Amino acid sequence: MQYNVTLKENASPEELSKAKETAKSQGGEITHEFSLIKGFTVKYPDDKMSTLESNEHIHVEKDGEVKTQ
């Protein structure tokens, strides 16, 4: 499954690096890094999501298609 991981506005650059390293060490593959916000898209095993979600500095949501009318 693919997820968007974004950091809170007040998170430090070190927190972003730590989140990426955690994702990679748990079997994730970063597929995109955002430039306007602190975050990235990662292919990540569903059974490991609690590891990322337990970090108080980040928000995790499933990546998906967004439609407008």
In brief:
The chain is an alpha+beta fold and 69 residues long.
Characterize the structure shown.
Strand 2 (29-33) and strand 3 (39-43) form a beta hairpin. The chain is globular, with a radius of gyration of 12 Å. It is of the alpha+beta class and 69 residues long. The protein has a 4-stranded antiparallel sheet, covered by helices on one side. It has helices at residues 13-25, 49-53, and strands at 2-7, 29-33, 39-43, 58-62. 26% of the residues lie in helices and 30% in strands.
Question: Which secondary structure elements does this structure contain, and how are they paired or packed?
Answer:
Blueprint: E1 2-7, H1 13-25, E2 29-33, E3 39-43, H2 49-53, E4 58-62
Antiparallel strand pairs: 1-3, 1-4, 2-3
Short key terms for the protein model shown above:
69 residues; alpha+beta; four-stranded antiparallel sheet; 26% helix
Proportion of residues in extended strands? 25-35%
Pattern of helices and strands: EHEEHE
- Percent of residues in helices comes to 25-40%
Side by side, the strands of the main sheet go 2-3-1-4
Mean of pLDDT: 87
Distance between the termini: 26 Å
